[in-house]
């Protein structure tokens, strides 16, 4: 009777999961980077955004880089845009800015900003929509 020794093989599977924490889990993605529209027309600028689990968005708004010195001003509060802008959002974290009665002076870079209930909760999507 022959005695055989079978070799043992140990197989180890290593599962790697990447968890992103901190500033990197905040993101704004613009649907279009550049839009051309006619004077007097209406245009929609859209984006989606993500933020850390456990945070609650308390404020979300669009602004132009023309008013970004220090603290950005929401277009809905800006006298130049007052009455010509509307915001729409949904539960899937998408946000749309509608500008009516476009003027030549509206040519700018528009950026979306959201603020959460956490102390490090301010985030502006860069580079915006031109």
From TrEMBL:
Keywords: Signal. Gene3D superfamilies: Immunoglobulins (2.60.40.10). Residues 40-119 form the B-cell receptor CD22 first Ig-like domain. Residues 1-22 form the signal peptide. InterPro entries: Ig-like_dom_sf, Ig-like_fold, Ig_CD22. This is B-cell receptor CD22 first Ig-like domain-containing protein.
